[in-house]
Design a protein that fits this description.
alpha/beta; 5-stranded mixed sheet; 51% helix
Amino acid sequence: METGATHDGPFHSDDVYAVAFAYLAGLISSVIRTRDPKKLAEAKFRIDVGRKYDPKTGDFDHHQEEGAGVRSNGIPYASFGLLWKHFGPTFCGSQECADIVDQYLVRPIDAYDVGFDLCAGFTTQDTCPYTISDMVANANPPLRNNPTPQDYDNRFNLEVEKAKAVIMDEVTFAKGLPMARQAIRRGIEAATD
């Protein structure tokens, strides 16, 4: 059994989706939420914790002063994107599928986590889309209830289960998208008008 580790306390879509993906990809079979260096060292994978990015040692954190890299479109990697970059193509079965999932799901989550405003310039009467990142952030236990570490862990685990379903839906969509595009092209080519 491979154990993963991520930080405890409040969670975001980045760590939730990274852990969900690690489960789906078979990288981990359990996760601990901690910042205890001794417990972190015992984990096979450290996700969004540890201030280190090194796939060879199982470290997928982006909280270094210099970050952990930037995509060609300028969006920095967060932990979900780092894991996806290394394991997404194998999980999806192709780089094309992995790139589609990165575009529609992974990049927006990473962007939100690193403070990259995807809604800049897009406001209609002070309105911006409600995102997966908003949904996950709002799933944290309310502070007015004086949440315990177990309250955070319970909510985190619920969000991980939801994230697994979303990831699988996006992979299914991405695998079908090239076929749909081909069908549309064939339809256009076959059209007489």
